[in-house]
Amino acid sequence: AKESGRNTFALYKTEMQAVSDARLEMEKALHHATESKFFKLYYQPQTNDKNQLIGAEALIRWKDEQKGFISPAVFIPVAEEIGLIVEIGQWVLNESLSQVAIWLKEGKWDPSWRMSINVSPIQFQQAGFLPMLKEQLEKHEVPASCVDLEITENMLLNDLTSSLEKMHAIKRLGVHLSIDDFGTGYSSLKYLKSLPIDRLKIDQSFVRDLLTDKSDEAIVHAVIAMAQALNINVLAEGVETFVHYDRLREIGCFFYQGYYFGHPVPPEDFIAEFVHD
Ligand code: C2E
Ligand code: CA
Ligand code: CA
Ligand code: CA
Protein backbone atom coordinates (compact mmCIF):
# COMPACT_ATOMS: atom_id res chain seq x y z
CA ALA A 1 0.00 0.00 0.00
CA LYS A 2 2.83 2.30 0.91
CA GLU A 3 4.49 1.59 -2.39
CA SER A 4 1.38 2.31 -4.45
CA GLY A 5 0.73 5.48 -2.45
CA ARG A 6 4.08 6.80 -3.41
CA ASN A 7 3.45 5.90 -7.03
CA THR A 8 0.16 7.70 -7.00
CA PHE A 9 1.87 10.76 -5.64
CA ALA A 10 4.59 10.48 -8.26
CA LEU A 11 1.99 10.22 -10.98
CA TYR A 12 0.11 13.20 -9.58
CA LYS A 13 3.27 15.24 -9.53
CA THR A 14 4.03 14.26 -13.10
CA GLU A 15 0.58 15.32 -14.21
CA MET A 16 0.90 18.62 -12.41
CA GLN A 17 4.25 19.10 -14.06
CA ALA A 18 2.75 18.35 -17.46
CA VAL A 19 -0.02 20.89 -16.90
CA SER A 20 2.37 23.63 -15.89
CA ASP A 21 4.74 22.76 -18.74
CA ALA A 22 1.86 23.08 -21.19
CA ARG A 23 0.89 26.36 -19.64
CA LEU A 24 4.43 27.73 -19.85
CA GLU A 25 4.65 26.55 -23.41
CA MET A 26 1.42 28.36 -24.27
CA GLU A 27 2.65 31.56 -22.62
CA LYS A 28 5.85 31.38 -24.63
CA ALA A 29 3.97 30.72 -27.86
CA LEU A 30 1.59 33.56 -27.08
CA HIS A 31 4.47 36.00 -26.55
CA HIS A 32 5.92 34.89 -29.85
CA ALA A 33 2.56 35.16 -31.62
CA THR A 34 2.02 38.66 -30.25
CA GLU A 35 5.46 39.84 -31.35
CA SER A 36 5.14 38.27 -34.78
CA LYS A 37 1.45 39.13 -35.18
CA PHE A 38 0.40 35.56 -35.83
CA PHE A 39 -3.20 36.61 -35.43
CA LYS A 40 -6.03 37.15 -37.85
CA LEU A 41 -9.43 38.67 -37.45
CA TYR A 42 -12.55 36.89 -38.61
CA TYR A 43 -15.80 38.76 -39.03
CA GLN A 44 -19.29 37.54 -38.18
CA PRO A 45 -22.38 39.31 -39.57
CA GLN A 46 -24.94 41.03 -37.36
CA THR A 47 -28.38 41.45 -38.92
CA ASN A 48 -31.81 42.92 -38.30
CA ASP A 49 -35.27 41.36 -38.70
CA LYS A 50 -35.34 42.32 -42.39
CA ASN A 51 -32.23 40.23 -42.89
CA GLN A 52 -30.18 43.34 -43.55
CA LEU A 53 -26.61 43.63 -42.39
CA ILE A 54 -26.14 46.06 -39.49
CA GLY A 55 -22.51 45.30 -38.77
CA ALA A 56 -19.95 42.68 -37.86
CA GLU A 57 -18.16 41.39 -34.81
CA ALA A 58 -14.40 41.08 -35.09
CA LEU A 59 -13.21 37.81 -33.57
CA ILE A 60 -9.54 37.01 -33.14
CA ARG A 61 -8.00 33.81 -34.51
CA TRP A 62 -4.59 32.43 -33.61
CA LYS A 63 -2.99 29.82 -35.78
CA ASP A 64 -0.03 28.25 -34.05
CA GLU A 65 2.61 26.76 -36.35
CA GLN A 66 2.44 23.37 -34.62
CA LYS A 67 -0.92 23.23 -32.92
CA GLY A 68 -3.11 24.83 -35.58
CA PHE A 69 -6.03 27.04 -34.50
CA ILE A 70 -6.26 27.74 -30.79
CA SER A 71 -9.59 29.05 -29.54
CA PRO A 72 -9.71 32.61 -28.15
CA ALA A 73 -11.81 31.16 -25.33
CA VAL A 74 -8.58 29.38 -24.33
CA PHE A 75 -5.85 31.91 -25.05
CA ILE A 76 -7.57 35.23 -24.23
CA PRO A 77 -7.83 34.35 -20.51
CA VAL A 78 -4.13 33.42 -20.52
CA ALA A 79 -3.27 36.66 -22.32
CA GLU A 80 -5.25 38.54 -19.66
CA GLU A 81 -3.40 36.84 -16.84
CA ILE A 82 0.04 37.60 -18.21
CA GLY A 83 -0.84 41.11 -19.37
CA LEU A 84 -0.36 40.46 -23.08
CA ILE A 85 -4.02 41.30 -23.68
CA VAL A 86 -3.19 45.01 -23.75
CA GLU A 87 -0.93 44.59 -26.75
CA ILE A 88 -3.23 42.05 -28.40
CA GLY A 89 -6.25 44.30 -27.85
CA GLN A 90 -4.40 47.18 -29.43
CA TRP A 91 -3.61 45.00 -32.42
CA VAL A 92 -7.29 44.00 -32.71
CA LEU A 93 -8.42 47.63 -32.67
CA ASN A 94 -5.81 48.66 -35.22
CA GLU A 95 -6.55 45.73 -37.52
CA SER A 96 -10.35 46.04 -37.41
CA LEU A 97 -10.29 49.80 -37.96
CA SER A 98 -7.88 49.45 -40.83
CA GLN A 99 -10.28 46.89 -42.33
CA VAL A 100 -13.26 49.23 -41.96
CA ALA A 101 -11.23 52.05 -43.54
CA ILE A 102 -10.44 49.86 -46.55
CA TRP A 103 -14.05 48.71 -46.94
CA LEU A 104 -15.33 52.28 -46.59
CA LYS A 105 -12.96 53.44 -49.34
CA GLU A 106 -14.01 50.54 -51.56
CA GLY A 107 -17.67 51.33 -50.97
CA LYS A 108 -18.19 47.92 -49.40
CA TRP A 109 -18.98 49.08 -45.90
CA ASP A 110 -22.16 51.06 -45.36
CA PRO A 111 -21.36 53.95 -42.97
CA SER A 112 -24.43 53.00 -40.90
CA TRP A 113 -22.91 49.62 -40.07
CA ARG A 114 -20.96 49.05 -36.89
CA MET A 115 -17.79 47.13 -36.34
CA SER A 116 -18.09 45.45 -32.93
CA ILE A 117 -14.79 45.05 -31.16
CA ASN A 118 -14.27 43.06 -27.96
CA VAL A 119 -12.46 44.94 -25.22
CA SER A 120 -11.02 43.04 -22.29
CA PRO A 121 -11.60 44.52 -18.82
CA ILE A 122 -7.85 44.73 -18.35
CA GLN A 123 -7.45 46.66 -21.57
CA PHE A 124 -10.37 48.95 -20.75
CA GLN A 125 -8.95 49.78 -17.34
CA GLN A 126 -5.60 50.93 -18.73
CA ALA A 127 -5.05 54.67 -18.28
CA GLY A 128 -3.98 54.86 -21.91
CA PHE A 129 -7.08 53.23 -23.37
CA LEU A 130 -9.01 56.37 -24.27
CA PRO A 131 -6.10 58.23 -25.90
CA MET A 132 -5.24 55.05 -27.80
CA LEU A 133 -8.81 54.73 -29.08
CA LYS A 134 -8.84 58.36 -30.18
CA GLU A 135 -5.50 58.01 -31.91
CA GLN A 136 -6.62 54.89 -33.77
CA LEU A 137 -9.83 56.56 -34.98
CA GLU A 138 -7.87 59.53 -36.28
CA LYS A 139 -5.14 57.43 -37.82
CA HIS A 140 -7.58 55.31 -39.83
CA GLU A 141 -10.03 58.16 -40.45
CA VAL A 142 -12.90 55.90 -39.47
CA PRO A 143 -16.04 57.68 -38.21
CA ALA A 144 -16.51 56.91 -34.52
CA SER A 145 -20.14 56.02 -35.27
CA CYS A 146 -18.90 52.95 -37.20
CA VAL A 147 -17.38 51.54 -34.02
CA ASP A 148 -19.02 49.57 -31.24
CA LEU A 149 -17.04 48.39 -28.24
CA GLU A 150 -18.20 45.23 -26.49
CA ILE A 151 -17.52 45.20 -22.79
CA THR A 152 -18.73 42.83 -20.09
CA GLU A 153 -20.85 43.64 -17.06
CA ASN A 154 -18.45 42.40 -14.46
CA MET A 155 -15.58 44.65 -15.43
CA LEU A 156 -17.66 47.65 -14.46
CA LEU A 157 -18.06 46.45 -10.93
CA ASN A 158 -14.37 46.78 -10.15
CA ASP A 159 -14.40 50.53 -10.15
CA LEU A 160 -17.79 51.83 -11.18
CA THR A 161 -16.99 55.54 -10.92
CA SER A 162 -13.94 55.48 -13.12
CA SER A 163 -15.56 52.99 -15.53
CA LEU A 164 -18.56 55.29 -15.87
CA GLU A 165 -16.37 58.28 -16.58
CA LYS A 166 -14.52 56.37 -19.23
CA MET A 167 -17.72 55.13 -20.81
CA HIS A 168 -19.07 58.66 -21.02
CA ALA A 169 -15.83 59.85 -22.60
CA ILE A 170 -16.08 57.05 -25.17
CA LYS A 171 -19.67 58.05 -25.92
CA ARG A 172 -18.60 61.67 -26.35
CA LEU A 173 -16.25 60.50 -29.10
CA GLY A 174 -19.31 59.06 -30.85
CA VAL A 175 -18.30 55.44 -30.33
CA HIS A 176 -21.09 52.99 -29.39
CA LEU A 177 -21.03 50.71 -26.37
CA SER A 178 -22.51 47.25 -25.97
CA ILE A 179 -22.69 44.95 -22.99
CA ASP A 180 -21.52 41.50 -24.03
CA ASP A 181 -22.73 38.18 -22.61
CA PHE A 182 -25.57 40.00 -20.91
CA GLY A 183 -27.28 38.02 -18.19
CA THR A 184 -24.22 36.08 -17.09
CA GLY A 185 -22.84 38.84 -14.87
CA TYR A 186 -23.98 40.69 -11.82
CA SER A 187 -25.31 44.00 -12.99
CA SER A 188 -28.40 45.25 -11.24
CA LEU A 189 -31.23 47.01 -13.00
CA LYS A 190 -30.60 50.18 -11.07
CA TYR A 191 -27.07 50.39 -12.25
CA LEU A 192 -27.86 49.45 -15.82
CA LYS A 193 -30.00 52.58 -15.93
CA SER A 194 -26.97 54.73 -15.20
CA LEU A 195 -24.79 53.22 -17.94
CA PRO A 196 -24.41 55.02 -21.27
CA ILE A 197 -25.08 51.82 -23.20
CA ASP A 198 -26.50 51.44 -26.71
CA ARG A 199 -27.00 47.71 -26.79
CA LEU A 200 -27.23 44.56 -24.74
CA LYS A 201 -26.06 41.32 -26.26
CA ILE A 202 -28.11 38.52 -24.74
CA ASP A 203 -25.75 35.70 -23.96
CA GLN A 204 -26.03 32.67 -26.20
CA SER A 205 -26.66 30.37 -23.25
CA PHE A 206 -30.15 31.88 -22.91
CA VAL A 207 -30.81 31.76 -26.62
CA ARG A 208 -29.77 28.14 -26.98
CA ASP A 209 -32.53 26.77 -24.76
CA LEU A 210 -35.10 29.43 -25.54
CA LEU A 211 -37.54 26.97 -27.09
CA THR A 212 -37.35 24.30 -24.44
CA ASP A 213 -36.50 26.01 -21.17
CA LYS A 214 -39.31 28.15 -19.74
CA SER A 215 -37.02 30.05 -17.40
CA ASP A 216 -34.63 30.96 -20.21
CA GLU A 217 -37.58 32.21 -22.19
CA ALA A 218 -38.70 34.27 -19.22
CA ILE A 219 -35.23 35.75 -18.86
CA VAL A 220 -35.06 36.72 -22.52
CA HIS A 221 -38.54 38.26 -22.24
CA ALA A 222 -37.54 40.23 -19.17
CA VAL A 223 -34.30 41.50 -20.72
CA ILE A 224 -36.15 42.71 -23.80
CA ALA A 225 -38.87 44.43 -21.76
CA MET A 226 -36.33 46.10 -19.53
CA ALA A 227 -34.18 47.21 -22.46
CA GLN A 228 -37.21 48.67 -24.19
CA ALA A 229 -38.03 50.69 -21.08
CA LEU A 230 -34.46 51.97 -20.92
CA ASN A 231 -34.33 52.63 -24.66
CA ILE A 232 -31.50 50.18 -25.23
CA ASN A 233 -31.27 47.83 -28.23
CA VAL A 234 -31.05 44.10 -27.76
CA LEU A 235 -29.06 41.75 -29.96
CA ALA A 236 -29.33 38.00 -29.48
CA GLU A 237 -26.13 35.97 -29.82
CA GLY A 238 -25.85 32.34 -30.82
CA VAL A 239 -28.88 32.31 -33.10
CA GLU A 240 -28.36 28.95 -34.78
CA THR A 241 -31.69 28.09 -36.40
CA PHE A 242 -34.69 29.64 -38.06
CA VAL A 243 -36.94 28.68 -35.14
CA HIS A 244 -34.70 30.50 -32.68
CA TYR A 245 -34.73 33.57 -34.88
CA ASP A 246 -38.50 33.35 -35.34
CA ARG A 247 -39.15 33.04 -31.62
CA LEU A 248 -36.81 35.92 -30.81
CA ARG A 249 -38.56 38.16 -33.30
CA GLU A 250 -41.90 37.19 -31.82
CA ILE A 251 -40.68 38.14 -28.35
CA GLY A 252 -39.48 41.50 -29.64
CA CYS A 253 -35.77 41.05 -30.31
CA PHE A 254 -34.84 42.51 -33.69
CA PHE A 255 -31.06 42.17 -33.91
CA TYR A 256 -29.23 38.90 -34.30
CA GLN A 257 -25.89 37.20 -34.61
CA GLY A 258 -25.27 33.50 -35.01
CA TYR A 259 -24.57 30.58 -37.30
CA TYR A 260 -28.06 30.80 -38.80
CA PHE A 261 -27.03 34.11 -40.37
CA GLY A 262 -23.36 33.36 -40.82
CA HIS A 263 -20.20 32.04 -39.19
CA PRO A 264 -17.19 34.22 -38.46
CA VAL A 265 -15.13 34.28 -41.67
CA PRO A 266 -11.96 35.91 -43.04
CA PRO A 267 -12.42 39.43 -44.45
CA GLU A 268 -12.46 38.35 -48.12
CA ASP A 269 -15.23 35.86 -47.43
CA PHE A 270 -17.18 38.35 -45.37
CA ILE A 271 -17.59 40.62 -48.38
CA ALA A 272 -18.24 37.73 -50.77
CA GLU A 273 -20.83 36.06 -48.55
CA PHE A 274 -22.60 38.88 -46.80
CA VAL A 275 -22.18 42.14 -48.71
CA HIS A 276 -24.27 42.52 -51.83
CA ASP A 277 -24.51 45.65 -53.88
P1 C2E B 1 -17.90 36.36 -27.50
O1 C2E B 1 -17.42 37.77 -27.52
O2 C2E B 1 -19.14 36.07 -26.72
O3 C2E B 1 -18.05 35.94 -29.01
C1 C2E B 1 -19.06 35.09 -29.52
C2 C2E B 1 -18.53 33.69 -29.69
O4 C2E B 1 -19.62 32.84 -30.08
C3 C2E B 1 -17.50 33.55 -30.80
O5 C2E B 1 -16.60 32.52 -30.40
C4 C2E B 1 -18.33 33.11 -31.98
O6 C2E B 1 -17.58 32.43 -32.97
C5 C2E B 1 -19.30 32.20 -31.31
N1 C2E B 1 -20.57 32.08 -32.05
C6 C2E B 1 -21.12 32.93 -32.93
N2 C2E B 1 -22.32 32.49 -33.36
C7 C2E B 1 -22.55 31.32 -32.75
C8 C2E B 1 -23.64 30.37 -32.78
O7 C2E B 1 -24.63 30.53 -33.49
N3 C2E B 1 -23.52 29.28 -31.97
C9 C2E B 1 -22.43 29.07 -31.17
N4 C2E B 1 -22.40 27.98 -30.41
N5 C2E B 1 -21.39 29.94 -31.11
C10 C2E B 1 -21.45 31.06 -31.89
P2 C2E B 1 -15.02 32.71 -30.56
O8 C2E B 1 -14.72 33.45 -31.82
O9 C2E B 1 -14.41 31.37 -30.36
O10 C2E B 1 -14.63 33.66 -29.36
C11 C2E B 1 -14.77 33.22 -28.04
C12 C2E B 1 -14.58 34.36 -27.06
O11 C2E B 1 -13.23 34.84 -27.09
C13 C2E B 1 -15.43 35.58 -27.38
O12 C2E B 1 -16.75 35.40 -26.92
C14 C2E B 1 -14.67 36.66 -26.62
O13 C2E B 1 -15.00 36.62 -25.25
C15 C2E B 1 -13.24 36.21 -26.82
N6 C2E B 1 -12.66 36.97 -27.96
C16 C2E B 1 -12.70 36.69 -29.27
N7 C2E B 1 -12.06 37.63 -29.99
C17 C2E B 1 -11.60 38.55 -29.09
C18 C2E B 1 -10.85 39.78 -29.19
O14 C2E B 1 -10.49 40.26 -30.28
N8 C2E B 1 -10.57 40.43 -28.01
C19 C2E B 1 -10.98 39.96 -26.81
N9 C2E B 1 -10.66 40.66 -25.69
N10 C2E B 1 -11.69 38.81 -26.67
C20 C2E B 1 -11.99 38.12 -27.80
CA1 CA C 1 -18.29 39.66 -28.04
CA1 CA D 1 -20.86 37.32 -26.25
CA1 CA E 1 -18.14 35.25 -24.20
TrEMBL record:
Keywords: Membrane, Transmembrane, Transmembrane helix. Signal peptide: none annotated. It comes from the Bacteria. Residues 23-277 form the EAL domain. This is EAL domain-containing protein. It comes from Marinomonas foliarum. The chain holds residues 522 to 798 of 798 of the full protein.
